[in-house]
Amino acid sequence: MKILAIVQLTFRESFAKKTFIAFFGISTLVCLLFIFALNLDIVDGLKSSVSIFGKETPELVNINKLIIGIESAVAVFLFTGGLFMSLFATSGLIPSFLQPGTIDLILSKPLNRIQILSGRFLGAVSIVSFNVIYLIIFSWLILSFKTGIWSGGFLLAGIMIIITFAILYSLMTFLGIVTGSGAFSLMITYLILFFSPLLLERDKIYALLSGKFYGYLLDALYHFSPKTSELGNITRLLVQGSPVSSWLPLWTSLFFGVIMYIISTFLFSRKNF
Amino acid sequence: MFAIETSNLTKYYSNGKVKALEDLSLQVNKGQIFSLLGPNGAGKTTLIKLLLGICHPTRGNATLLGTSIGNYKSHANLGYLAENQRFPDFLNAHQVLYYFGKMNGLKKTLLLERIPGLLQLVKLADWEHVKIRKYSKGMLQRLAIAQAMINDPELLFLDEPTDDIDPVGRREVRDILIDLRNNGKTIFLNSHLLSEVERVSDEIAILKNGRLIRKGDVQQFISVKDTYQLNLQNGEKLIFPICEKLNIAVRRQQDVYVISVNDDHHLNKLIDTLREQRIIIRAVIPYKISLEDFFIEILEEEKGN
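Above: the input entities. Below: the structure tokens describing the complete assembly.
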């Protein structure tokens, strides 16, 4: 498959960046920590002793709660720090791809423009997936083997994190094609990522606004933009094994991602280089 | 079927304010080296970009090997060396050829077979596994030539292929191009080095301000009708009076004489007279101007118009 060559090349390019090496290194450290530093002795579902770096903790804790706590911490790290680092590391992939001398050569290959952009997009998503899956799978396996508790919610959290990245990356792709600037795309995407909790609490902001128009504007922004705050909440609930009250934020965020991606491919197909 | 055929191909930028190419109709036969000449901003690179689908025409159409330029599948039989080409610098030469070959849809086994030979051809075999960030400009250009040939294309677009290459390397590139042409490939060349173009091209086209102003056989363009170079061993004193008597214009150009005759009979009469005077004729060669002279002449003629 010709498109696979672009995916592989993007994967290699991403891996050549030090940010992903750092991400990979941190993931490996977390796994090593679970392997060597965390020792658990379990009797009838309760720990008889837990030691971290050889030091025992004094209280008795339900082992289920402990594992969910550790998995939640990993998921939160991935949803915040992991996404932050991944967006930073992939922000330059689209603009660098559109540079004269690079895009000319790729467009001269027997690939249509949708395949080319999709290859780049999938390449970026695949490197982030690789890092997320690496950390999630290995930490899950280590924790599960050590405790005998096999909680599938943690794995679902990994999928949610990858989906959230793909949604945000579709916005970065759109901005990268329109502006050709990795820094600008990153700034706007971070804005969406970090202002999502504010939009969720927009009811509290209405009181401060002078006119109804701003209220409608906030509503429109909330409904159209990806709901990263709620996606984070869904991720947390999945790890805890708690029921998710509404999947709507996921569907509307996915819709946003698909729309951004369709607009991006349309613009890319019509662009002159 | 032509290798390249364009019909009223036009490209405007900035809502028509910049006319990069205007109503270009051009045919390039298969199996030849066709060169595109023109001053900076004439539309040469725009034409290549339009043909390769890198930018879209404002109007008009074109075909490559009989397939419309809108159909990306025709690119399977094309090779392209872009001006200021940039390869990912974290790859080595082998990986560059491998990944860009894969984009052509080539199988891994075929690529592994083909890559060493291509690197040998462009004299990069010893550098196969060295990261290309360590390469000189000339080496990168040679790698770009190998990349353009990775899919054994029927039609090659080379935009300034000898840029940054030293004279020896240039000669090697020239030999590669001639070999490819002899093997039936069509080469579409865009180069500022007119001496190189003159040596290798079968046909040329000259663009100016986005318009085609000349197209034809390069040898016909540079040959001057009924004008010859005479290389004589002796008779320096006799040549001018003889030519005057026969009403032949003559001038000395370094070690040879340049004569303008009316026709072949006129030339033969001169030769007979020189031999009667026991002047030894070393060579009679049709006189040619350089492509550079022709190019400048055409541009000035157009300027006058």
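Note for the figure: The longest helix of chain B spans residues 167-182.
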